[in-house]
């Protein structure tokens, strides 16, 4: 993931979580960009999407939570039971 892609990730997280307001956005982008450099942007964004749709804590994920979602072995594009039933319905 590039630094510009990391900025897009931060923007998405800010849009989803009103309480996500890093004190130093430059340092946050630098650190997240460094930690997620080996991961494709699309996979990280898909992990964020899955996190947002499944987590009810109301708090943005940390780096480890997103990486865990990517390494969980689950197909992030798999349809949830609710989505499947909505198609059947």
User: What is the radius of gyration?
Assistant: 14 Å
Provide the low-confidence segments as ranges: none
Shape: globular
Q: What percentage of amino acids are in beta strands?
A: under 5%
Order of helices and strands: HHHHH
On the 0-100 scale, what is the average pLDDT? 88
The biggest beta sheet reads: none
Distance between the termini: 39 Å
Which percent range fits the helix content? 55-70%
Task: Give the helix/strand layout.
Layout lengths: L2 H14 L8 H11 L5 H14 L8 H9 L9 H8 L1
Helix pairs in contact: 1-2, 1-3, 3-4
What's this entry about, in short?
The protein has 89 residues and is mainly alpha-helical.
3D structure, described in words:
With 89 residues, the protein is mainly α. Helix 1 packs across helix 2, helix 1 packs parallel to helix 3 and helix 3 crosses helix 4. It is globular and about 45 Å long. The model has no long low-confidence stretch (mean pLDDT 88).
Considering the chains and any ligands shown, give keywords for the structure.
89 residues; 5 helices; mainly alpha
């Amino acid at each position: 993931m590039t630094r510009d892609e990391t900025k897009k990730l931060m923007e998405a997280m800010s849009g989803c979580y009103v309480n996500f307001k890093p004190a130093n956005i430059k340092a946050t982008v630098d650190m997240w960009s460094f930690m997620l450099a080996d991961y494709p942007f699309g996979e990280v964004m898909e992990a964020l999407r899955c996190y947002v749709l499944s987590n009810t804590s109301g708090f943005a994920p940390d780096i480890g939570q997103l990486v865990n979602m990517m390494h969980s072995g689950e197909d992030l594009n798999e349809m949830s039971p609710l989505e499947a039933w909505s198609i059947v319905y």
